[in-house]
Specification:
It contains eleven helices and 15 strands. By secondary structure, it is of the alpha+beta class.
């Protein structure tokens, strides 16, 4: 018996030792997990107006983020998260700027500027106004086939595979299908994740139309003036073929996760990376590039207020995306890589703006040529990527139209734009290609529109 107890004792020591080693080895990762959980919780509750319980069960319910515990202060509009009581991180919500993970040096009581917003009632039906859309029936549309396809991508009771939260299909400016998961509806504000990159790029299209920039000019980065990086253009950044080093890995402590959950100023990390390829010779996806572009955009304006106002004044509010909010980092920069929120219908308006080549009910927001630019495949991307939009030119989805392009985000957020079918298809979910067959989804819907 004593020998048995001794063995148990040694075993317990070994287990504790392994646990200590595991915690020590993964300790930095816990900081990232806590930061993600706190940020996502604060945004879901205070932007999305969802409950803590809903967020725990849905948005934060995947490994390893579900290891974190969150405490929400509804009065102070903040969320605190930790993993096993370790690496506590705090996120705060600020009206007009969204939620941000803060560090110990951040002054929560400091005053801050917010974007000026405007809402003009047009007395028009959706999508150009707030009135209900007209009852239009298209003889060339198989409504039942579309309805069946849309229903099929929502999990049945007891399933948790495709995790679709919302689908909206628009043909010739008319909603022809719309469905939401339980707990969500057309008023629910959802995070687009990397679809925000396409929102960010649109600002450059507008400045190009206004004659205030030329995207073929060299990127105005002071730190690059004395080395080979001085040859990088704004276009190289928009096409993500600038050749700069970057690690876009979300399963580890990488450049991307460090930027999103530790850095005060997210526009800086990509600036200090070395050039490992010449511009236009190597395509590599980088959220750091998108946030660098947000910083370049900010530097274009004489004041911070102008930077805050520009995207809302020039197209977001102008096309009626009044639910949209782009969150900022601790330094006040728009997180152009990841953090735009809006209702599904407002995300669809963004798709329609591109479907109509920049024309919104008679007003040209950006030049039609901008659409040609963002849909031109980036060199070495194999036809999959353009100017901060994803393409199907290379047949990534083999049964979908080749002219389809899209704004894509983490966990399968999509705004598909299909000019040949006059279609915009929006899908929101909590899992991407691993759980949902997008190829079949697009194929069935496009075949139902003759």
């Amino acid at each position: 018996m004593k020998r048995f107890k001794k063995i148990l004792g040694y075993g317990f020591i070994v287990i504790v030792g392994l646990l200590v080693v595991a915690i020590f080895w993964n300790y930095p990762k816990l900081t990232i997990l806590s930061g993600y959980s706190a940020k996502n919780m604060a945004s879901s509750v205070f932007i999305g107006n969802r409950s803590v319980e809903f967020t725990d069960i849905n948005d934060n319910n995947f490994a390893p983020v579900n290891l974190a515990d969150d405490q929400v202060n509804m009065t102070k509009k903040s969320a605190v998260a930790s993993v096993f009581g370790l690496n506590e991180r705090k996120a705060i919500y600020r009206e007009g700027l969204g939620s941000v993970v803060i560090d110990d040096d951040f002054d929560e009581n400091a005053s801050y500027l917010i974007p000026n917003r405007s809402k003009i009632k047009t007395n028009l039906p959706f999508p150009y106004g707030d009135l209900p859309q007209k009852d239009t029936v298209f003889s060339a549309v198989d409504y039942q086939k579309i309805a069946n396809m849309v229903s099929s991508v929502f999990d049945k009771e007891g399933e948790s595979i495709q995790k679709t939260r919302a689908v909206l299909v628009i043909h010739k400016d008319q909603i022809i299908a719309e469905k939401y998961a339980d707990g969500l509806d057309e008023n629910s504000v959802l995070l687009g994740w990397s679809m925000t990159k396409s929102i960010l790029a649109t600002n450059y299209g507008i400045l190009q139309k206004q004659g205030k920039i030329d995207i073929n000019d060299k990127a105005p980065i002071k730190e690059w003036e004395d080395d080979e990086r001085k040859e990088i253009t704004i276009s190289n950044l928009l096409q993500m073929n600038c050749g700069l080093e970057w690690d876009e890995d979300y399963g580890s402590i990488s450049d991307a996760t460090t930027m999103l959950y530790l850095d005060k100023d997210m526009t800086k990390p990509q600036i200090y990376k070395e050039a490992i390829h010449k511009p236009n010779e190597y395509w590599y996806y980088s959220s750091g590039v998108s946030n660098l572009l947000s910083g370049v955009l900010r530097g274009h304006f004489d004041s911070y207020q102008e930077y805050l106002d520009f995207p809302y004044r020039e197209f977001i509010d102008k096309i009626g995306m009044h639910s949209m909010l782009i969150e900022t980092d601790m330094a006040g920069n728009y997180v152009g890589s990841s953090y735009a929120w809006a209702t599904v219908r407002d995300w669809a308006k963004f798709g329609l703006l591109y479907l109509h080549r920049g024309n919104w009910n008679g007003e040209q927001i950006f030049n039609p040529e901008w659409v040609d630019y963002v849909t031109t495949p980036t060199a070495t991307s194999e036809g999959d990527y353009g100017g901060h939009f994803w393409l199907n030119a290379g047949g990534f989805y083999p049964d979908a139209p080749k002219d389809m392009y899209s704004a894509n985000g983490f966990q399968g957020q999509r705004v598909f734009i299909i000019p040949s079918k006059d279609l915009v298809i929006v899908r929101f979910g909590l899992v991407g290609d691993a759980g949902m067959d997008f190829n079949r989804f697009i194929k069935e819907i496009t075949e139902a529109v003759k």
